[in-house]
Design a protein that fits this description.
GO molecular function: DNA binding
InterPro entries: CheY-like_superfamily, NreC/VraR/RcsB-like_REC, Sig_transdc_resp-reg_C-effctor, Sig_transdc_resp-reg_receiver, Tscrpt_reg_LuxR_C, WalR-like
CATH topology of the largest domain: Rossmann fold
Radius of gyration: 17 Å
Pfam family, one: Response_reg
Strand order of the largest sheet: 2-1-3-4-5-6
Number of domains: 2
CATH class of the largest domain: Alpha Beta
Protein name: Fructose response regulator of fruA and EII fructose/mannose
Subcellular location: Cytoplasm
Helix content: 40-55%
Order of helices and strands: EHEHEHEHEHEHHHHH
Distance between the termini: 43 Å
CATH superfamily of the largest domain: Response regulator
Shape: globular
CATH architecture of the largest domain: 3-Layer(aba) Sandwich
Length: 212
């Protein structure tokens, strides 16, 4: 069964080019393309879409706002596709439920892998995107709100920190000398305590200074 993809971008050249590229992969079916976030939300509400590939800057409704409505009102998984100068939207996009944040300058294979990863329940955030978040937060003076560390065990805090550094479960396993299954259990515990939904949000949670 093919992964059904909706492309939302106000640049027709990028929109149609992405459609042509993605349709070359037999596992994908681009079901439609739209001009803005509102059209994306409406389409996902009325049609069966697995992945919504959203630009950030669009008229009527941007990709960050569309992400929120798509997550709240549909089963579609939003994947943000952005450019280097859109980093101010990253935090809001993840808080709104974006399952991935990818840069437009990636090669087709990287975008393909990201779409498949998000479809299979993973989250995708490039190191360069996490670096931009860290850079922004270091310059910000608004991260005074600190979470009570007593909510977490020492092991959970260690895992949260490694997730924020971009480590996979396999890499965390090697670092802490515990099994991947045990790590998954710790992550589930952290998600339960924080009310977050996925590991990318855990990374943002840590990087905002709420967990030191």
């Amino acid at each position: 069964m093919k992964i059904k993809i909706l492309i939302a971008d106000d640049n027709s050249f990028i929109r149609e080019g992405m459609k042509i590229i993605l349709n070359t992969y037999e596992e994908f079916e681009v079901v439609d393309t739209v001009n803005d976030g509102k059209e994306a939300v409406d389409y996902c509400k009325e049609n069966d879409v697995d992945i919504a590939l959203l630009d950030v800057r669009m008229p009527n409704m941007n990709g960050v706002e569309a992400t929120k409505f798509i997550c709240e009102e549909t089963k579609t998984k939003p994947l943000i596709l952005t450019t280097f100068d859109d980093d101010e939207y990253i935090l809001d996009a993840v808080k709104n439920g974006a399952k991935g944040y990818l840069l437009k300058n990636n090669d087709p294979e990287r975008i393909r892998d990201a779409i498949k990863g998000v479809y299979n329940g993973q989250t995708v955030m490039q190191d360069v995107v996490l670096d931009k978040i860290k850079s922004n937060l270091m310059e910000s003076k608004e991260d005074e709100c600190k979470i009570d560390k007593s909510l977490f065990t020492e092991r959970e805090l260690s895992i949260i920190a490694l997730i924020a550094k971009g480590f996979s479960n396999k890499e965390i396993s090697k670092q802490l000398f515990i099994s991947e299954g045990t790590i998954a259990n710790y992550i589930t515990s952290v998600l339960g305590k924080t009310g977050l939904e996925h590991r990318t949000q855990i990374a943002i949670y840590y990087l905002t200074g709420k967990v030191d």
